[in-house]
From TrEMBL:
GO terms for molecular function: oxidoreductase activity. Keywords: NADP, Oxidoreductase. It comes from the Eukaryota. Belongs to the short-chain dehydrogenases/reductases (SDR) family. Pfam families: adh_short (PF00106). This is Carbonyl reductase. It comes from Onchocerca flexuosa.
Amino acid sequence: VTGANKGIGYGIVKGLAEKVYGAVIYLTARNDKLGMESLNKLVKELGNKCHSDIRFHQLDITDRNSCENFASFLKKEHSGLDALINNAGFAFKHSAKESPEEQARVTIGINYEGTKQVSSILFPLIRDGGRLIFFFFF
């Protein structure tokens, strides 16, 4: 699950861990510290209601090297994946000081280009019958 250290992504990981037995679920985030804090919080929160193995891996969808490192790791550790849930995204607050042009550039760079990049790099690892899922809520 991309962008899973907070918000909807965190909720997706939590829901999957409660309902799916025996899965390995990766909570990903750009920031190692925030990702690990979220993982620890989630494991503690779920307690014995956790039926999957939740793990953290750093992933910045806007950084090609980060995406390729995650793909190499998944291929080595699991030989592929059953589902990629694209949740990472960004939205400016109404009070943002950036110009509309800058807001558009950053938003498109993350929400479109980043999602396209991570999807194209990880898609070859999706097993037969696997899924590529997109969540965009702003």
